[in-house]
Structures are given as structure tokens and as C-alpha cells.
Write a structure and sequence with these properties.
The complex is a heterodimer of chains A (113) and B (115). Chain A has 113 residues and is mainly β. Chain A is built from no helices and 11 strands. The radius of gyration of chain A is 14 Å and the shape is globular. Chain A starts with a strand and ends with a strand. In chain B, strands 2, 4, 5, 6, 9, 10 and 11 form a 7-stranded mixed beta sheet that branches. Chain B has a 4-stranded antiparallel beta sheet with strand order 1-3-8-7, with no helix packed on it. Chain B is globular. Classes of the chains: A mainly beta (113), B mainly beta (115). At the A-B interface, strand 4, strand 5, strand 9 and strand 10 of A face strand 4, strand 5 and strand 10 of B.
Amino acid sequence: GQQVMQIPQYQHVQEGEDFTTYCNSSTTLSNIQWYKQRPGGHPVFLIQLVKSGEVKKQKRLTFQFGEAKKNSSLHITATQTTDVGTYFCAGSRLGTGFQKLVFGTGTRLLVSP
Amino acid sequence: EAGVAQSPRYKIIEKRQSVAFWCNPISGHATLYWYQQILGQGPKLLIQFQNNGVVDDSQLPKDRFSAERLKGVDSTLKIQPAKLEDSAVYLCASSLDTGIPYGYTFGSGTRLTVV
């Protein structure tokens, strides 16, 4: 079945440092979504990428979808303590007319002040 | 807009007992999902409804798990009998449509502990 892996599993940075998490799918995706889950919380939708090579920015966050639509990345510039949480990518492969979202393994980010 | 409502927030049961979780999605969202999230892992899809019909239950352990969505709105997920490995957070999510990719809105989840 479809697998979505993320690296690294965990990263600890000092506030102000940059952070990147990478997402790789075993199959070609129709779209990819990114979610943030704070400790003890639930996943919150951040963004969706649909086009090959697409790049989107949200303030200090930059999201990229690979040319082959099998990988993606999330880059945070100048991390803040509010960025703490686990970041999940979730890939969708269209099948039988409905979207089936498979979540990645997640990258846990810890930011020290 | 009101979010996805789930109850209860926490539940502790003994193995072999039964338990049920309830979810009320965002009004107008046709698609409803139940995910299981084991500590330290990503959410795993259990079942997906479009209105009141099941579109994907391939990863639902049907010998012990069941789910229904009456009238295409609220949904319940039941486990009977529970096993120790069912300890997890059960997340309900909804989205506008399954054919068009939309972000999911998740509820706060039900944390189940099986002892």
C-alpha cells in the first residue's frame, strides 16, 4: 500500500534557527497537504499543494511539491517557540473517485528559547 | 463556524469491554473520517464516509470495530471487544467533498486507554 515517510523524526533547534522537514511518498500523489499538531492537540490544516514543482509561502513557512509529485518539503525560517509541534505531510492519490489521504510519520520540532 | 465536535474526550476501559465514540462534523461537510493515532505515530485512516455511505473501510478491523453515519451527519465508532493495542487517540475529521481535495478539519479527539 501507499507509504509516506518523513525525515527527520525529531529535531531540536535554538530559536531563530531554520528548520526543514522532508516528505517522501512511495507512489505519485495527486496533491499533498501539511498539518501541524501541537503537543496534546489535534492536527490543524496548514496548506495544500497540487501542481508539480509548486511552491507556496505562509509568512515564515515555505512549502514545496516535487517535480515528480512524490516528495515535498516544509521549511521554517527563523523558528519561534510557537512553532513547537509535530508536522505531518499527508498525500492523496485519487482512486475510484474519492480522495484518500495517507499521513506521513511526522517530524517533531522542539524550539528552545 | 463551529468545529468538529467529539465526545467523550477521555475514556478508560478494561480489555474485552466495549466503547463508543461520537462525532458531529462541520455543518455541510459531506465527508467524514475516523482516524486512529497511536502515540508517536501519524493518524491512520479507519473509515471514510461520503454522506451516509462508506467509501473506504479497508483498514477497519471489522471483527471488532464498527462505524455508522446516520442521516449523513453524526457518526459513531464502536469497539467491541477492546484490546490493549486499541489504546490510542481516535480522531474524527470532516471535509467538504471527497472528489475535490480540501483540507480536513479535525476534532479534538477521544483518548482511549485500555487496561
